[in-house]
Design goal:
single chain, alpha/beta, 2 domains, 7-stranded mixed sheet, 6-stranded parallel sheet, 15 strands, globular
Amino acid sequence: MPMKKRFNNILLVNVPVSRGRYTVPDFPPVGLGYLSEALTVNGIEHDVLDMMLGYNENHLSSAIRNKKYDLVGFSLFTYHYKASYAIIAAIKKKFPSLKIIAGGPHVSTFREDVLKECPAIDYGVVMEGEEAIVRICDASIECRGIPGLIYRDNGEIMSNAVSVLRELDAIHYPRYRKFELKKYSSNISIITSRGCPYQCIYCPVPRTIGEIFRCRSPRNIAEEIRYWYGIGYRRILVLDDNFTLIPKRVRELCDLLKSLKLEGLVLSCANGIRADKTDYGLLKEMRDAGFNEIAFGVESASNKVLSAIRKSEKIETIEQRIKDACALDYKVVLFFIIGSPTETYDDFLESVSLALRYPVYSTRFYNLIPFPYSQLFEWVKSNNLFVSLPEKYLSEASHHINEPLFSTPEFNLEKRKKAFAYAQEVEKTVKRRYVFNKTNGPKLFRYVVSFLYANDMINHLYHSNPVIRRIGLKLRRLI
């Protein structure tokens, strides 16, 4: 029996999160891809507008006016959320009868507060939205019967209990049929698991996607990789938070990929894996199956700091995995955090020393952001250590700018800024060294290539110009 629809024509929107600067996305947003696929397989008419591809509010208004959508869904991140609210409010003002639903990490973090702060939003979805977006379109299902839904009932904000999706194989992976795939780079990204059981004090993941780890089967993942390979994609990014949490699953996937003989396939775990959930043998199996880039969330080279942030890892284990990955000729990326509780400037210098010790591909030092509902946020708040108040920094802060958000007696504001500035130079040094050593040709030529690779102006062009981005990605594969 056909569904009696509450909404007949839907637009899914990815709002821009850059500070007014056009930035070319590497790949389509995976979360929105899953929602689109859920609507597609349930026969619900919809379109997708990724505003990160250069679209503005006028484009959005024109699309709504021309296609007469009755529901628009926005995927929200906390970064620049006030600008997102402004876009939503403007759209609601132009189209008062239009219903608006919002989801994404920002809604999962702040929940009912989102509907309070942005009255233009009619519905919110906490955590996973594949089931919620389909159910809300079904007129036979009342709002109170949709898990994770936040909605308005006679002016009162109501919130339903959240339930996580346990069987991820039952969800159709995105085919991005409604996306402008040619406008992205030649990469595609996949997610093979959800949830994180660890308790790192700074991490928002347990609240945004859940503490229960759930994963897709190796066969299901291999099917998705083969699908993208079959239509011409050769570089696939795995965006999991915990890809190697179950090593046996990864080994089975590697065996399947090797049996498929997908020549030229390049896989990347550039989002980071835990060093203690892999070993030399597993890294070798992954390398043989097509993985060539791997990142480790080091955070700090000090066991004291790792203990303070509840990382549940030792630096000795992390360093051994870095050695193993370098020995296997991976492009190794190391992530560090500046300014964790108990960290001193000397501790930071230990991290710099580790970053320079091995022939890694890239190092990234991030400004630490205290996200609400995290243990770090409560610690900073209780100790009155904020430099910038949450209501300001949550919409403006970035891991990538030299504006510390809190300070401690052992690592004050001046030293934090000094550390961040120094870390940016270290990042360039690491990049230049890697490219110099991997580039063939005369010494002068290698110097020029390595200099350009880490040049700020070139990197700006790479991130803002789609043509240069595609050229850069092709050149990057030669290194």
